[in-house]
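[audit] Reproducing an earlier prediction to check determinism. Same input, same settings, fresh worker. If the tokens differ from the archived copy the diff job will pick it up downstream; this log only records the rerun itself.
[audit] input (475 residues):
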Amino acid sequence: MADLLSVGIDIGTTTTQLIFSKIKMENTTGYFAVPRISIVDKEILYQSEVHLTPLLTETLIDSDGVREIVAQEYQKAGIVPSSVDTGAVIITGESARKENARAVMERLSAFAGEFVVSTAGPDLESVIAGKGSGAWAYSLDHHCEAVNLDIGGGTTNIVVFSEGDVIAKGCFDIGGRLIRVENGRITHISPSAKLVAESLGLSVQVGNAADAAQLSKITDRMAELLAESLGLLPKSALLDAVTTNNSTPLTYRTKPKTAVFYSGGVANRIEPLSAEPFPYGDIGALLGASVFRGTLFGETTAQQSTQTIRATVVGAGMFTTTVSGSTITCTSAQFPMKNIPVLKLTPDEQEQCFLGNVQALISRIRWFCEQSETEQLVLALPGKENPEFPEAKRLAVCLADALEQTLPKDAPLLVLIETDIAKAVGILMRSVLGSARDVVCIDCVRVEQGDYMDLGKPLFDGLVIPIVVKSLLFG
């Protein structure tokens, strides 16, 4: 058995928080079987306070302030960065659109631990929050579909799981901090909130008196848009207008009595409105009340989330790291490797590789490197079940020749095959290349075009590699 100490850090529109957790891994097969190393348990060790995300201006995060928050929480937890094995820093909502978002995230990632990775992107956030809230586990345990809506300060991230698989995801610029209030006056209104107000014929301006009745009309419309996104109401043009940039179109139609989970800060206010409409200086309580009395809450079955405001940070700390299959090839490459873009071949492109068409693969790799402005990549293939030896040999020769001719001489050759044939292909690649190149060939990990990968130091005497599959999308 091996234990990994993991950290999750979430820099959100409104709040910044951190957790430490323990991830337990062990060989789940018997002594006389091929080893299979799996994550068998996860335990939260420490949860930070929920801090307000410090800003310098409307467009800049206070990098020093965020780092100080994280450093103080490490100290409170009694943990030094060098003891952290894995984890993720995720930047979410409107924070991902700040001018210095990437720099802030990379600085934190470097501080937090050697294999603490940086991630950003609305689709990834949707999945992470859905795992942190309990929706993913519920769909597995009950063999059903489950929806999670993570309603934060700047965005609502939606994911649909079917027996643990992601079948739909999307993100919308709907959140509790899109209109802010101080001393009875509106101090901020986001572009998407302005669009919603204008669709209702309402004039809402910075400096106006904060009229709870008027602002409730806006949050009621926001709640309707969430119902539209899941097919409970007819889709309007406004829904497209408030869809977050870089978000996957959400095409799922919610079925009657579908299990729905709510997370994010607004999830704690899905209830009748209290006497104070602006307890946090924003429209979060109004939006929660609008969801509570709206179509979405009324026509689905709300489930008890295991985490609400902490769902994303728990997901980042406990569900971002996976492990490769246990039959891999790994030479003495330098680990960890971070932010490696994934080139995923289509089934037709893969078939050309099995036929030995080296030139087609060379052209594909060169095009990808030019478009991505990179000299390194993970070449990912769907793979085949139990290919014949001549097929596997042709594939290995094709991959080795194409990567050797296109990548810098000091770059390791990274190959990912979704089926369980990485060790055989990797050994065959080594027979072609000799010892001049480092080869890392891993399997049993799913990726998509546009993903990035981080690879940690091999574990269990090189049997497996800890892996994070992620996106890097900023506003």
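[audit] rerun output stored. Observation attached for the diff report: The chain has a mean pLDDT of 91.
[audit] end
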